Q: What sequence folds into this?
């Protein structure tokens, strides 16, 4: 049983989950919400969406919101002040994505008001941040993550420790693993979405193969408009030349759908469909994926679907690595989790390899995947033990009255504006 036994007449403690800026956060934290709800009864779980637009996106996506609604009370930012006035003393844990957090962050104000709560940072998605699970010498810089306002950080993989030890106090880091990659969670997803998958397969079953095309829009840092246009045009040309193949096109949540659709004109209308299906669901509908740089690569591998990473690494990102010929590349490529393609010729070669030897490709990628993400079946229990034992941070001191008043004002104005503040 999770937590300290409480008087049967006392209200349950609360775990407050913040969804900050992306459905990737919900995709990551939802398995934990479901596991805690299923395996303990000392806590109520409340999920706070910082953005009404993001909440609407979750509802439109369908699967995630339905499962969230079954396991958690959902509130909007405009309800936050009223919620805290009635429940701040009950909040034991606050979960928020690991976006940089300082004393000016809304989550820090919530923590100040919830005097006994511990704030735990969690991954923005199932992304990777390093290629080694061996801890290297690091220089810690707390500039973007104020140590006074968070208590712990949980991670997907030991491969991430090096990167985060430079940003988060090392003794507050706990590697749990990706519960969403466990067979337990994949069975739940399969049961919840079987009707949808069956309906899609009735149509796509007449094709020789079905591919997921996972996109990321142009970005001033990662991907130029010129490179994006080239990647899209060359990929669609290759797909058009592949006989009897169906393509599910999944834009990034922040992409303009109409902008994506203009690239698809050269494909027959009956050979593609633009979708916003969850990656765990889409992976069950397809033979393999062609993905721009994205954590969707490991999402697909979690359900046994092999991948091709198709991207132009001409931009700038601290997470990218160098190959032997000094070209930039991703962790997915370095760790052998995907086939690599950067242009029409290498994409054509990767597609041919996938078509000719898909079982061999799958086996190799899944073997490498299992080395990076270990023991996902035990992650739920590891989370429970982590909460039982505490995050390891020092006991919180009393919040000064001036800080408390400032925090209430911060929450008041954030609630008033509805979508302001981080």
A:
């Amino acid at each position: 049983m999770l937590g300290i036994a409480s008087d049967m007449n006392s209200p349950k403690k609360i775990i407050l989950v913040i969804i900050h800026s992306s459905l990737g956060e919900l995709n990551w934290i939802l398995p934990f919400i479901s596991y805690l709800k299923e395996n303990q009864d000392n806590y109520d779980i409340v999920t706070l969406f910082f953005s009404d637009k993001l909440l609407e996106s979750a509802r439109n996506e369908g699967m995630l919101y339905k499962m969230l609604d079954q396991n958690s009370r959902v509130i909007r930012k405009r309800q936050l002040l009223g919620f805290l006035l009635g429940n701040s003393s009950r909040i034991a844990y606050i979960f928020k994505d690991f976006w940089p957090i300082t004393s000016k962050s809304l989550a820090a104000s919530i923590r100040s008001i919830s005097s006994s709560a511990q704030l735990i940072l969690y991954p923005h998605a199932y992304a990777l941040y390093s290629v080694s699970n061996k801890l290297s010498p690091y220089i810690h810089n707390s500039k973007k993550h104020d140590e006074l306002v968070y208590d712990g950080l949980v991670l997907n993989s030991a491969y991430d420790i090096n990167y985060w030890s430079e940003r988060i106090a090392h003794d507050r880091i706990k590697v749990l693993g990706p519960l969403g990659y466990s067979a337990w969670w994949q069975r739940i997803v399969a049961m919840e979405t079987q009707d949808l998958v069956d309906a899609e397969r009735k149509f796509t079953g007449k094709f020789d193969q079905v591919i997921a095309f996972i996109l990321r829009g142009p970005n001033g840092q990662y991907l130029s408009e010129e490179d994006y246009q080239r990647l899209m045009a060359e990929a669609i040309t290759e797909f058009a030349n592949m006989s009897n193949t169906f393509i599910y096109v999944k834009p990034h949540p922040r992409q303009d759908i109409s902008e994506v659709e203009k690239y698809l004109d050269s494909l027959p209308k009956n050979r593609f469909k633009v979708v916003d299906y969850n990656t765990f669901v889409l992976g069950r509908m397809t033979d393999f994926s062609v993905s721009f740089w994205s954590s969707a690569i490991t999402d697909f591998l979690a359900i046994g679907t092999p991948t091709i990473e198709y991207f132009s690494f001409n931009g700038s990102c601290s997470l990218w690595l160098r190959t032997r010929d000094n070209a930039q590349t991703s962790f997915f490529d370095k760790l052998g989790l995907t086939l690599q393609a950067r242009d029409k010729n290498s994409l054509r070669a990767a597609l041919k390899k996938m078509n000719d030897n898909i079982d061999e490709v799958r086996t190799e990628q899944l073997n490498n995947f299992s080395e990076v993400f270990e023991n996902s079946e035990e992650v739920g229990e590891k989370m429970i033990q982590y909460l039982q034992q505490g995050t390891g941070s020092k006991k919180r001191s009393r919040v000064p009255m001036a800080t408390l008043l400032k925090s209430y004002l911060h929450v008041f104005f954030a609630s008033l504006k509805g979508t302001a503040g981080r």
Q: What stands out?
A: Confidence is low (pLDDT under 50) at residues 1-7. The CA atoms of residues 89 and 115 lie 7 Å apart. The first helix runs from residue 23 to 39.
